[in-house]
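Re: weekly structure request thread

Next one in the queue (135 aa):
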Amino acid sequence: MSTRRRAIVPEMNVTPLVDVVLVLLIIFMVVTPQIEAGAAVELPVASNPDKENKELEPTTVSMASNGAIFLDRKELKRDVLLTELKAIHEKDPDAPVVLKADRGVRYSEVRGVFKAMQDLGFPGINLQVVDKQKH
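Done, posted below.
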């Protein structure tokens, strides 16, 4: 009687790999929306917005519906914001600026911040909106 031993065939357990991949996917799904410059605001809808110029990285000023104002992702009081913007403009007079305002913010408040940024001397201030056709 010859007893042959069968070779043990290794099997890969993919369950831990799938678990790790799913956790990474969830992390990226949560983090990706927060990577966007500026604070999270619900933008107004416009019919024919201008195409974005992606060549230069703009400074983003965001106005939230609760009245908070952000420079990129940092919340600031209005006078501190204007001081920071003045420093940015002195360092680079052609620096592009984008103003994002939540649709719940009063127009007079948006106009006031826009005017203050114009008074600082920024050559062009872009108002960010959502394209109505894509929305």
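Strands lie at 45-46, 59-63, 69-71, 74-76, 97-101, 125-127, 130-131. The chain has three helices and seven strands.
Next request, please.
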